[in-house]
Amino acid sequence: GIIATTGCPSGEVQTHLRLGQYDKAIEFASKLVDIFGHDYVYLELMDHGMKSNIERRVRGDLMRLGKELNLPLLATNDAHYANPQKTGENLPDWQLHEEMLAIQTHAVMSEPCDYDGGTRFGFDSHEYYLKSSAEMLERFPEDEYPGAISNTLEVAERCTAKLEHDDDLRPRIPLPE
């Protein structure tokens, strides 16, 4: 079956929690359970070290909601780029990501980001990379977030999607020498 999570801070559950609408958050999480089934819904915990602390502010309520609905926690991390620091002579991956966001939203890099009072869309942390197991365990220790890490492994093992053919589907882009 399809596995559903409560998603990022912009997801409906976290948005309701952030706005102090606990009853609406429970109502929506319950709808997820009705749609996907109890064994297929997880409460998603993230920690990208955001300046706004938006992810940490809802954790207590997410955990309370999990106890009330008997839903498991899931430790996740958005991976928008591969490396946390500069690799080789190139710009750091986070900076390349910022530039791609600016291109995508028709903005210029000289404009400050929205989180700094400007209008350019940007991420207010440089932690949107593929974190190691050790980094995730450090962020979500078992004694504070029971099952969050082991549930992440369980979900990964439950994913069985396969491409229908063995062709490499990546686009071929001719590059100059």
Can you tell me about this structure?
38% of the residues lie in helices and 6% in strands. By secondary structure, the protein is mostly helical. It has a three-stranded parallel β-sheet. Helix 1 (12-18) packs antiparallel against helix 2. The longest helix has 15 residues, at 22-36. The protein is globular. The relative contact order is 0.13.
Q: Rough shape?
A: globular
Strand arrangement across the biggest beta sheet: 1-2-3
Number of strands: 3
| pLDDT averaged residue by residue | 90
SSE ordering = EHHEHHEHHH
List unreliable stretches of 5+ residues. Answer: none
CA gyration radius, whole angstroms: 19 Å
Structural class computed from helices and strand pairing: mainly alpha
Strand content: 5-15%
Number of helices: 7
Largest sheet: 3 strands, parallel
State the distance separating the first and last CA atoms: 46 Å
Q: Estimate the helix proportion, in percent.
A: 25-40%
Write a short abstract of this structure:
The protein contains 7 helices and 3 strands. The protein has 177 residues and is mainly alpha-helical. Strands 1-2-3 form a 3-stranded parallel beta sheet.
SSE blueprint and pairings:
Elements: E1 4-5, H1 12-18, H2 22-36, E2 41-45, H3 54-57, H4 59-69, E3 73-75, H5 93-104, H6 133-139, H7 148-158
Parallel strand pairs: 1-2, 2-3
Helix pairs in contact: 1-2
